[in-house]
Design a protein that fits this description.
Order of helices and strands: EHHHHHEHEHEHEE
Largest sheet: 6 strands, parallel
Strand content: 5-15%
Number of domains: 2
CATH class of the largest domain: Alpha Beta
Structural class: alpha/beta
CATH architecture of the largest domain: 3-Layer(aba) Sandwich
Number of helices: 8
Length: about 220
């Protein structure tokens, strides 16, 4: 453990947790679903939040009743990823309190790890906003055996930080991500309008977070 009962490391999700980037993904997803001939509803879009790209695309193909033989997952991933990169490069807003929370933990010398289901190619563009030097490691959805909600991403994040996952705190915004972190044995904090998982502590926002917020 580090001093003041802080966790050994804090593992942060990216989209919707640190960055207010889901609205940019919303644009890309809506544009993609129009190529399939339908308009995605807010409820359908919500069902894909926090999902790995392949899982999200499968749900969208299912909703559009695209026959399995006609599903070009690789092409769809390239289309969506390229569009998101274009949108990210136009600037990504921070979530309230997120930058300050990273600074607070960095000043306390708590190692930080970025753990996201987003693929590496897109994550690299987001790191331009986040600041890659803030993190001792980054884990992306296309770099581990099974993405969230499997525990693999958070187990890998804790491993790269050099600590047991049970000594780490994870911060998430989606049910998919929270289930992943809980399954890995992390203490889980969540942000967003509503609680997303039993067993997680719901903060609502990182605005005003203190060292006490992250205490194990």
């Amino acid at each position: 453990m580090t001093t003041s009962s802080l966790p050994s490391a804090v593992l942060f999700d990216m989209d919707g947790t640190l960055l207010d980037s889901e609205k940019l993904w919303d644009i890309a997803v809506a544009e993609f679903t129009r190529t399939l001939g339908y308009e995605v509803t807010p409820e359908q879009r919500e069902s894909t939040l926090g999902n790995a790209t392949g899982d999200a695309l499968r749900k969208l193909f299912d909703i559009a009743d695209v026959p399995e033989a006609d599903r070009d997952y690789a092409g769809a991933e390239r289309w969506v990823s390229n569009r998101v990169v274009e949108l990210f490069d136009g600037g990504i807003p921070w979530q309230p309190g997120a930058r300050e929370a990273l600074d607070l933990l960095g000043a306390a010398e708590v190692p930080l790890v970025l753990v996201t289901n987003t693929i590496r190619e897109v994550t690299e563009h987001a790191l331009g906003t986040l600041g890659r030097d803030r993190f001792v490691a980054t884990v992306c959805g296309d770099e581990i055996p099974a993405p969230k909600p499997a525990p693999d991403p958070y187990l890998r994040g804790a491993e790269l930080a050099g600590f047991a996952s049970s000594d780490c705190v994870a911060v998430e915004d989606s049910p998919t991500g929270a289930r992943s972190a809980l399954a890995a044995g992390c203490r889980v904090l969540t942000v967003g309008p509503e609680p997303v998982a039993d067993g997680a502590v719901h903060l609502g926002t990182l605005a005003g977070a203190s060292r006490e917020t992250f205490r194990l």
